[in-house]
C-alpha cells in the first residue's frame, strides 16, 4: 500500500494577519484618525484647515499625533458639557 500524500492548496491555508500592536500608536494617518474619531475624512481635513488639528508629514504621508487627537476630543467633550 502506498502512503497517501495530501496536497495542499493556497485555499487550504489561512491568510497571514498582521501581528497585534505591542504599543499604542503615537500618530495616525488621516483615514485612520478619522475612523478613530468617528468622522469622515473630509470633515477631518476641514478641521485641519480651520486650525483645530495639527499635522506633520513623513515623506508623502500626512500624520496626526495621537496626543493631539486626544486633546482635540477632550476639548470638544469639555465644550459640550459646558453648553
Structure description:
- The protein has helices at residues 30-37, 41-49, 66-82, and strands spanning 27-29, 56-58, 61-65.
- The chain is of the alpha+beta class and 83 residues long.
- Helix 1 (30-37) packs across helix 2.
TL;DR?
The chain is of the alpha+beta class and 83 residues long.
List keywords for this structure.
83 residues; alpha+beta
Radius of gyration: 22 Å
- State the helicity in percent bands: 40-55%
Beta-strand proportion: 5-15%
* Arithmetic mean of pLDDT: 86
Question: How would you summarize the topology of this molecule?
Answer:
Blueprint: E1 27-29, H1 30-37, H2 41-49, E2 56-58, E3 61-65, H3 66-82
Antiparallel strand pairs: 1-3, 2-3
Amino acid at each position: 500500500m502506498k502512503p497517501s500524500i495530501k496536497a495542499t492548496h493556497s485555499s487550504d491555508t489561512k491568510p497571514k494577519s498582521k501581528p497585534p500592536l505591542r504599543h499604542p500608536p503615537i500618530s495616525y494617518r488621516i483615514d485612520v484618525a478619522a475612523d478613530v474619531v468617528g468622522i469622515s475624512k473630509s470633515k477631518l481635513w476641514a478641521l485641519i484647515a480651520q486650525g483645530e488639528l495639527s499635522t506633520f508629514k513623513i515623506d508623502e504621508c500626512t500624520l496626526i499625533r495621537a496626543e493631539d487627537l486626544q486633546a482635540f476630543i477632550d476639548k470638544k467633550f469639555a465644550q459640550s458639557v459646558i453648553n
